[in-house]
Specification:
The protein is an alpha+beta fold. The chain folds into 2 domains: about 70-180, 2-Layer Sandwich (60s Ribosomal Protein L30, Chain: A); about 190-355, Phosphoribosyl-aminoimidazole Synthetase, Chain A, domain 2 (Alpha-Beta Complex). Helix content is about 35%, strand content about 20%. It has helices at about 5-10, 10-25, 45-60, 60-65, 100-115, 135-150, 205-215, 230-240, 255-265, 280-290, 315-320, and strands at about 70-75, 80-90, 95, 100, 120-130, 155-165, 170-180, 195-200, 245-250, 270-275, 305-310, 330-335, 345, 350-355. The strands form 3 sheets. The protein has a 7-stranded mixed sheet. Strands 1-2-7-5-6 form a 5-stranded mixed sheet, with helices on one face. α5 (about 100-115) packs parallel to α6 (about 135-150) and α5 (about 100-115) runs parallel beside α8. It is globular and about 55 Å long.
């Protein structure tokens, strides 16, 4: 009998259930593919398997092992820097509410902010396909400049490469960024504890759904706009109101469901989500239902998931709601000690189900 079953004091059928939960919890994604697939870029199980099997063994070091949104580097002076990098291959390049240029800035700024860092500067590298229109390039670069100015983060260096016609689907962008983490500020899954409150900073699923509809492959007409936005200012509002905040993560690829699974495995506790509390716009919910996709797994580019101390939960929500980007902030669940390492959804019908990591790639190339 497992520790979980022993602690529950159960026998027979209950013990068997706990055994199955424990076996589920201990499963690690394994790389079984002979070639790279779109699923390896979706941020779910296939991405985790690729990371564990290929990149982690090759580049092994303490900073990488943390597997956070940005690496934390301690300088000889004792100051701490957050350092992050990302690539953007979204299709189409423009979509309702934003463009690849906006994503390229917001994605890296947000990765730094999720470590509690104040972003200092960004780099930008472009891979351009021969024949790409100059007017389109100017427009995307203008979007990047606008996004960087709004976030208060300059783009200070970069690179440009041009590849043969047909080799890059127009344009790919990579950005890196550095930020300073204030003394005494530490956000980590290791700080998460039983009873903590899980908060979403707003409506989920907007970005992935907006991009999917913008491709025009589906006979759906809905006014859904991407939520792409810089979260550094909103993060500061949260931490000012709730200084004991444990952990932050922007729910991009794989959505809230995958992010919560990463948290559960990192802290070895249970994330209990309430289905009735999940903030999903009716239009997004309807589009996802038609597509057969769970909004929990749809990417966001302007929302984060936060874990806060119970005593600070209301102050956190109040502060977030006073900011334009957090006006729909809501508590979506709690942290529990058992069964450890999984995400459980309390359904609207009074039942429960396990929320696994994303399998496959229902929405490829959404960022």
């Amino acid at each position: 009998m497992t520790d979980v079953a022993r602690k529950a004091g159960s026998t027979g059928r209950e013990a068997a259930v706990f055994e199955r939960i424990e076996a589920f919890r201990r499963r690690r994604p394994r790389l079984l593919d002979d070639v790279v697939t779109l699923a390896h870029g979706a941020g779910g199980k296939a991405s985790a398997a690729l990371l564990d099997a290929i990149f982690m063994p090759a580049f092994s070091n303490d900073s990488l092992a943390a597997q956070t949104d940005a690496a934390v580097l301690t300088l000889p002076s004792g100051d701490r820097l957050a350092f992050s990098t990302d690539s953007f291959v979204v299709k189409p390049l423009r979509f309702p509410g934003g463009s690849a240029g906006h994503l390229a800035v917001h994605g890296t700024v947000n990765d730094l902010a999720m470590m509690g860092a104040s972003p200092l500067a960004l780099s930008a590298a472009f891979v351009l396909e021969e024949g790409f229109p100059m007017d389109s390039l100017r427009a995307i670069v203008a979007d990047m400049a606008e996004a960087a100015a709004a976030a208060g983060v300059p783009i200070v260096t970069g690179d440009t490469k041009v590849v043969d016609r047909g080799a890059a689907d127009g344009m790919y962008i990579s950005t890196s960024g550095v930020g300073v983490i204030p003394a005494g500020r530490e956000l980590s899954a290791a700080k998460v504890a039983d009873g903590d409150v899980v908060i979403s900073s707003g409506m989920i699923g907007d970005h992935g759904t907006a991009v999917m509809l913008a491709r025009g492959d589906l006979a759906l007409d809905a006014e859904i706009v991407s939520d792409t936005a810089p979260l550094n200012e909103l993060m500061e509002c949260l931490l000012a109101a709730a200084p004991s905040t444990r952990w932050l993560r922007d729910a991009t690829r794989g959505g809230v469901g995958t992010v919560c699974n990463e948290l559960a495995r990192a802290c070895d506790l249970t994330v209990v989500l309430e289905e009735a509390a999940l903030p999903v716009r009716p239009t997004v919910a309807a589009a996802c239902e038609l597509l057969g996709i769970d909004p929990l797994y749809v990417a966001n580019e302007g929302k984060f998931v936060a874990v806060v101390a119970p005593a600070e939960a209301q102050a956190a929500l109040t502060a977030l709601r006073e900011h334009p980007l957090g006006r729909d902030a809501v508590s979506i669940g709690q942290i529990r000690s058992e069964p450890p390492g999984i995400v459980v959804l309390l359904t609207a019908f009074g039942g429960t189900r396990i929320v696994d990591m994303l399998v496959g790639d229902p929405l490829p190339r959404i960022c």
